[in-house]
Amino acid sequence: MKRSLSIAAAALLVSVAVAAEKAPSQPDEAAVDRARKTVRMLDDVYKNAVVLITEKYVHDEDDFAAGSAAVALFEAVSQKGHHKVELLDATGEPYDEENTASDDFEKEGIKQLNDGKDYFERVEITDGKPVLRAVTALPVVLQKCTMCHENYKSVKEGHPIGALGYSIPIE
What are the pLDDT digits (tens) for 57-66? Predict the structure, then answer.
């Protein structure tokens, strides 16, 4: 009887240890802060690039849109495995259906942005690893934006027309 109890106790300990090893742990706050700083830095870079492209290279409706250039850049960055970033619609009238919020996090993020916030985040576990997901607001900053997006003319100043959605690995 003692021997079967010892075997059962050992098996229980092994299964608890294996489960603990497989269970993803929440990252420490310093790691999350580093990921937040990365989001802010990337957000500045990407948004400034779109504005620069629009100012310097978009002159009429036939020019390659800065938003399209940004999407191509985002796909290239994501394919390299650095992080994921995507352009999301916040108006309910997406320029491209691929820009529609596709999961609960993105939908809640767009709701938060439309309610007046400029940033929304959540730490999630993806493929067993912690990831910081964030959305940042994209308001109309140049009148040229309405050249290709007529529906943006009716958007209240400062209100988001879209968002950048990030998934940044937390290391």
Answer: 888 888 888 8
